């Protein structure tokens, strides 16, 4: 019924009346909000006198952090002073990286906070059967019961002497993560904490690791750059520091040439000077050919790379070079080996055949890039390297920065200056014998086995193989998983070939999950614990990196007027009866475990996490054994953990006397820092790691390596561990490189390998091109109406639709028309989608934005919650393959599919 | 805050909306625009818009054949035309030219006849076929006693049931005699440069929201305004110039700033 029907003569009066209703509304909320529960809203008695005739948006901008993607922008949140309601968000005005600029994803946060499909309180599964088609039949339970159930299960494992069957999985996190992710399993006695990192972009870290010793993401000095060559990176759309790069992009186009290597017309490609629409999987051919051109034409940076002794360029196509004739600079080594083993015959014409990009374009881009050097960026995204043989491509792409001397240099690729945060107190003294025995077990993702080198930081098995944990669980190899706590992730949706996780989760006898929404993962859980929203309802800390700085950004419970007061946070700081995964829940669990006779976790928290300002322990601050007191202590613990983590920043005494202070902004007390919510490092100093400037790279040789010496050591270490040789390792892991085999690429230098087919070309004639939705918020925004309504911000997409983009030439051949319902089938799965004929995709490929295909999560995300998916999930057709050297899951490359009209 | 919006803000403070001869105008620098849609989402939230109704919107075009493809994203909004056919054809003058040259809409006199919708060549007028935000009336939960419902969220957030708006409803929308928080069945509505914000010396939300500083806003009749500076520097364009409506929204440079016209090397607007 409409009270504003225009046929109503009293329209005007009604309207004025309506304003009064608004005021009454605020007062009405008093009654609605009053309750005995700790989480009820503040009584709003003050609402009566606050507003006169009109509502005014006088509110405070309170600091927090957006974790809508790993840009992790410092943020501010406008909180209505009368209702404590969140009105809007923006970038943090004091950030020297992005200022008030945020990206459109942050604006979706408010629709997540106030999402009608949020979980409001703990639930327990009543249907013992588990499966996608099985209704879990959840019933509400209290926090006390829910925590008690988890504690019972953990006690049972420890009593049976099998703590290794406990597992924690994480997805997004804040830097309070060690408490739940590391310390809890450690004290219980399980090695099985499995992060999402290998479905993010570990292969991207492989490139810088095995050239300059940095297992890390880079920041790119776009403000000083003259050439940006982006490889599968879409910096104005997705990850990382989108807010900063978006703002700079218009000026960058004035100052620099931008070239984008990408099989589909990405957002960045739409605005660039050059689009190199590479055939999926062949990026490495382009990188090798560009390096070839740069050396052939003498365009390398002498200061960084070196020079022929007599100044004569001996990089002649097809000819090897005598290393004796070249004098390496003190900054790098191995360029001759790289040329002799890989580059000497990688001419642009060859690459044009491999990669489907014209030779002239390869020449032009390579030349332009090198001539702009050292103010030139070879920008490595996930696309070219989250592929079966992606590690070597990552090295080749990153090594281009070495050739032109842009490593750590003005207008080039930088890292983050050191920050003034402290490690959280660790639990070593609280690990008992039962736990120690459990910790000796192998991890469930099988990292470090012959077939999973996962060479993070040069160490065999140093990194995670996230997606393989599903197989570990299903095969009970190395052991069964009996109890799982998952948090801030949705592995049943976010891993390639996600159907395996559905099976794995159904196998686990007891699974508790901590989430804001009833996700696909929650569908398999025994206990669902509702999580705080990271930007509005909790403590935490993340960091941003850009414009030469790194900032430390706080998450604060913005709806509480005094966030330091646990009571205020519990009463006003949350919309529902929700708790923080990384801190409050482990604390409550510690108390419940102590009730059951295992006191180590609680002793650890009580002893090591006092309030660093007052010195009071948790129990000294909040005594009492009832559950409410425990909830308050859990909140105080959360606050204390953050204070301890950031102590050098706000405690002058600690900073000066107990910490190796790297410089940067200084605060005088906690409240001053907490109210600002952001801290800056000093600015990045160009070239400070160059040996010629007195610095050192973190490789085994201390210099930038074109010859993969550090990789040689890592691979040999892994081979030795398995009593075999490097060739066997590479063979088992599906790589083509070999040691000293003239018919194979060299195992150590950056090089091109042909793509590894994920499907037979005859049966699956198309390459599937996956990329992440610009409004995606790491898979968590599909239930926000704006993400659906405005998803045409992804070039080629249309509002509210999930489209498979096909080149009109292919469509014509197959008789597919715009809007046809089609199925996309791969060797591992099949999804339904709608065809969109679009010239922005390469013939022979099907491009589809990742992010749709939810069958749970909520009523907007799915067609029918628990039943019918909205569109298709790309992960159903992408097989569970790996770039094994980095441990990464594969999303790109030669992912093969067939399409058919339905 | 970015340097651009800071200076635009300062300009706005010296511009009185009621002043004689103030001609408010927006310039959209397409080279700076990244097609991110933040303006549209910000606008939807600012104005409590029903889903599917966008004052700040876009025209998207892909041209050419692989691999020579161009893609253009053109942000759109009501052009606040000097010669506004929407206002001219309105039988009750509900649509009229208001202060600052803004094409205003008076919901109280609107009879929902749709003449303006027919007369606007830009499709910038939207009809409320029903009261907005009906989904926010729902009391249904996906999981009973486990997840929330629209009504429950509104209660919790302190937004009255009678307001046809989401829980993240923006109360600023009614901070003005000229405005109202949400619309209702049977009348039209349109963008008015966020006059409720202008009255409080705040920039239109799409201008403030744009992370790329692609939108420049100010007084066309102030010779020193940034708007005039930018218009003089580049060759401005309007949409459908041949319609003769004299739009107050201008466009400069190209969305494909890379591939079409090489940049001039001059410092960008943000510097
Ligand atoms: S770039 Fe990422 S972190 Fe920054 S505002 Fe956007 S979603 Fe949030
Ligand atoms: S917010 Fe700015 S950059 Fe983004 S689409 Fe709108 S005008 Fe373009
Ligand atoms: S764009 Fe349309 S609605 Fe706006 S003033 Fe012009 S004619 Fe009227």
Walk me through the structure.
The complex is a heterodimer of chains A (902) and B (271). By secondary structure, chain A is α/β, with parallel strands linked by helices. Among the domains of chain A are: 217-414 and 702-708, 3-Layer(aba) Sandwich (Dimethylsulfoxide Reductase, domain 2); 766-901, Barwin-like endoglucanases (Beta Barrel), CATH 2.40.40. Helices cover 31% and strands 15% of the residues of chain A. Chain A is built from 31 helices and 31 strands. In chain A, the strands form nine sheets. Chain A has a seven-stranded mixed sheet with strand order 5-4-19-18-17-6-7. A six-stranded mixed β-barrel of chain A has the order 24-28-25-27-26-31. In chain A, helix 20 packs across helix 24 (627-645). The longest helix of chain A has 23 residues, at 11-33. Chain A is globular, with a radius of gyration of 28 Å. The radius of gyration of chain B is 20 Å and the shape is globular. Chain B has a three-stranded mixed sheet. Chain B has a two-stranded antiparallel ribbon with strand order 2-3. Chain B has one domain (3-259): Alpha-Beta Plaits. Chain B is built from eight helices and nine strands. Residues 260-271 of chain B have low confidence and may be disordered. Chain B has helices at residues 3-13, 38-46, 85-88, 115-119, 150-157, 195-198, 205-209, 226-233; strands at 24-29, 57-65, 68-76, 95-97, 103-105, 126-127, 188-189, 215-219, 249-252. By secondary structure, chain B is of the alpha+beta class. At the A-B interface, helix 1, strand 3, helix 4, strand 5 and helix 8 of A face helix 2, strand 2, strand 3 and helix 5 of B. Residues 78-81, 84-86, 103, 120, 122, 124-125, 190, 245 of chain B line the site of one iron/sulfur cluster (SF4). Chain B: InterPro entries: 4Fe4S_Fe-S-bd (IPR017896), 4Fe4S_Fe_S_CS (IPR017900), ET_IronSulfur_Cluster-Binding (IPR050954). Chain B: This is Molybdopterin-containing oxidoreductase family iron-sulfur binding subunit. Chain B: One of its GO terms (molecular function) is metal ion binding. Chain B: Residues 240-271 are annotated as: Disordered. Chain B: Residues 24-54, 69-100, 101-130 form the 4Fe-4S ferredoxin-type domain. Chain A: Residues 126-135 have a biased composition (Basic and acidic residues).
């Amino acid at each position: 019924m409409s009270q504003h029907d225009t046929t109503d003569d009293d329209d005007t009066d009604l309207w004025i009346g309506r304003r009064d209703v608004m005021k009454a509304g605020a007062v009405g909320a008093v009654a609605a909000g009053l309750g005995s529960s700790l989480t009820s809203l503040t009584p709003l008695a003050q609402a009566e006198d606050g507003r006169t005739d009109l509502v005014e948006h006088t509110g405070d901008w309170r600091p927090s952090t957006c974790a809508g993607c790993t840009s992790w922008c410092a943020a501010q949140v406008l909180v209505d002073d009368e209702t404590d309601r969140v009105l809007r968000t923006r970038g943090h005005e004091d950030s020297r990286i992005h200022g008030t600029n945020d990206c459109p994803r942050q604006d979706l946060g408010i629709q997540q906070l106030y999402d009608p499909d949020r979980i409001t309180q703990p639930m327990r599964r009543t249907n013992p059967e588990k499966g996608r088609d099985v209704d879990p039949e959840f019933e509400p339970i209290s926090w006390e019961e829910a925590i008690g159930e988890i504690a019972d299960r953990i006690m049972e494992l420890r009593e049976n002497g099998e703590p290794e069957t406990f597992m924690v999985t994480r997805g997004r996190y804040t830097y309070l993560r060690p408490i739940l992710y590391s310390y809890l399993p450690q004290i219980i006695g399980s090695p099985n904490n499995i992060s999402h990192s290998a479905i993010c972009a570990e292969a991207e870290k492989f490139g810088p690791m095995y050239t300059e010793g940095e297992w890390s993401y880079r920041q790119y000095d776009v403000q000083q750059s003259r050439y940006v060559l982006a490889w599968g990176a879409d910096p104005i759309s997705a990850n990382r520091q989108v807010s900063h790069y978006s703002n700079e992009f218009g000026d960058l186009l004035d100052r620099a040439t931008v070239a984008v290597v990408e099989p589909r017309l990405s957002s960045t490609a739409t605005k660039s000077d050059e689009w190199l629409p590479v055939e999926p999987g062949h990026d490495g051919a382009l990188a090798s050919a560009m390096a070839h051109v740069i050396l052939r034409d003498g365009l390398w940076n002498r200061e960084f790379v070196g020079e022929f002794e007599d100044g004569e360029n001996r990089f002649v196509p097809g000819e090897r070079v005598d290393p004796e004739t070249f004098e390496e600079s003190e900054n790098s080594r191995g360029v001759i080996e790289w040329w002799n083993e890989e580059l000497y015959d990688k001419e642009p014409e060859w690459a044009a055949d491999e990669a489907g990009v014209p030779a002239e374009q390869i020449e032009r881009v390579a030349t332009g890039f090198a001539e702009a050097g050292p103010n030139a960026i070879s920008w490595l995204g996930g696309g070219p390297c989250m592929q079966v043989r992606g590690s070597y491509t990552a090295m080749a792409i990153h090594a281009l920065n070495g050739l032109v001397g842009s490593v750590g240099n003005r207008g080039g690729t930088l890292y983050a200056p050191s920050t003034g945060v402290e490690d959280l107190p660790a639990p070593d003294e609280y690990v008992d014998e039962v736990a120690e025995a459990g910790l000796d077990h192998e991890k469930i993702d099988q990292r470090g086995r012959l077939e999973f080198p996962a060479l993070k930081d040069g160490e065999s098995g140093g990194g995670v193989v996230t997606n393989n944990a599903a197989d570990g669980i299903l095969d009970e190899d190395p052991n069964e998983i009996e109890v799982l706590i998952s948090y801030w992730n949705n592995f049943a949706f976010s891993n390639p070939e996600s159907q395996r996780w559905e099976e794995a989760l159904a196998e686990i006898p007891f699974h508790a999950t901590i989430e804001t929404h009833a996700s696909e993962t929650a569908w398999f859980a025994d206990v669902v614990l509702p999580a705080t929203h990271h930007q509005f309802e909790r403590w935490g800390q993340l960091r941003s990196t850009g414009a030469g700085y790194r900032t430390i950004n706080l998450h604060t419970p913005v709806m509480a007027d005094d966030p330091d007061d646990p009571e205020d946070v519990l009463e006003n700081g949350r919309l529902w009866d929700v708790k923080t995964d990384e801190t409050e829940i482990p604390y409550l669990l510690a108390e419940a475990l102590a009730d059951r006779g295992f006191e180590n976790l609680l002793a650890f928290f009580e002893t090591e996490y006092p309030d660093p300002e007052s010195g009071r322990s948790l129990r000294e601050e909040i005594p009492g054994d009832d559950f409410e007191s425990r909830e308050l202590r859990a909140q105080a613990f959360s606050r204390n953990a953050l204070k301890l983590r950031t102590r050098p920043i706000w405690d002058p005494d600690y900073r000066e006397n107990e910490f190796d202070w790297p410089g940067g902004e200084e605060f005088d007390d906690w409240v001053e820092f907490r109210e600002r919510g952001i801290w800056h490092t000093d600015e990045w100093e160009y070239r400070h790691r160059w040996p010629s400037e007195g610095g050192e790279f973190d490789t085994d040789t201390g210099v930038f390596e074109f010859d993969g010496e550090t990789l040689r050591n890592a691979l040999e270490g892994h081979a030795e561990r398995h009593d075999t040789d490097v060739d066997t390792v590479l063979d088992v892991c599906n790589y083509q490189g070999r040691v000293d085999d003239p018919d194979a690429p060299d195992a150590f230098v950056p090089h091109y390998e042909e793509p590894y087919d994920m499907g037979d070309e005859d049966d699956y004639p198309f390459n599937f091109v996956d990329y992440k939705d610009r409004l995606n918020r790491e898979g968590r925004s599909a239930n926000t109406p704006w993400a659906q309504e405005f998803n045409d911000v992804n070039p080629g997409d249309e509002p509210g639709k999930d489209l498979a983009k096909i080149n009109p030439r292919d469509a014509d051949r197959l008789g597919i028309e715009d809007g046809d319902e089609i199925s996309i089938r791969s060797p591992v799965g099949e999804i339904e989608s709608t065809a969109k004929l679009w010239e922005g995709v390469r013939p022979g490929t099907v491009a589809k934005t990742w992010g749709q295909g939810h069958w749970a999560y909520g009523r907007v995300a799915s067609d029918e919650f628990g039943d019918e998916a909205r569109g298709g999930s790309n992960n159903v057709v992408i097989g569970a393959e790996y770039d094994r050297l980095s441990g990464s899951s594969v999303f790109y490359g030669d992912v093969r599919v067939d399409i058919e009209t339905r | 805050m970015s340097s651009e919006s800071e200076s635009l803000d300062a300009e706005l403070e010296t511009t009185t909306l009621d002043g004689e001869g103030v001609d408010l105008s927006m310039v959209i620098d397409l080279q700076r625009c990244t097609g991110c849609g933040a303006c549209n989402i910000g606008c939807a939230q600012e104005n409590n818009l029903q889903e599917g109704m966008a004052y700040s919107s876009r025209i998207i075009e892909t041209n050419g054949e692989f691999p020579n493809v161009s893609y253009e994203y053109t942000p759109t909004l009501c052009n606040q035309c000097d010669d506004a056919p929407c206002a001219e054809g309105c039988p009750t003058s509900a649509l009229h030219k208001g202060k600052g040259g803004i094409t205003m809409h008076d919901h109280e006199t609107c009879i929902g006849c749709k003449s303006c919708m027919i007369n606007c060549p830009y499709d910038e007028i939207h009809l409320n076929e029903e009261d907005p935000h009906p989904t926010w009336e729902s009391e249904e939960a996906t999981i009973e006693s486990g997840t929330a419902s629209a009504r429950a969220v509104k209660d919790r957030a302190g937004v009255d049931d009678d307001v046809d708006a989401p829980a993240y409803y923006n109360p600023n929308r009614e901070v003005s005699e000229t405005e109202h928080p949400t619309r209702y069945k049977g009348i039209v509505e349109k963008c008015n440069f966020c006059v409720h914000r202008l009255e409080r010396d705040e920039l239109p939300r799409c201008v403030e929201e744009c992370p790329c500083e692609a939108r420049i806003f100010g007084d066309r009749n102030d010779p020193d305004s940034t708007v005039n500076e930018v218009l003089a520097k580049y060759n401005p364009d309007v949409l459908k110039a041949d319609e003769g409506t004299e739009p107050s929204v201008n466009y400069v440079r190209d969305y494909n700033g890379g591939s079409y016209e090489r940049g001039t090397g001059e410092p960008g607007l943000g510097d």
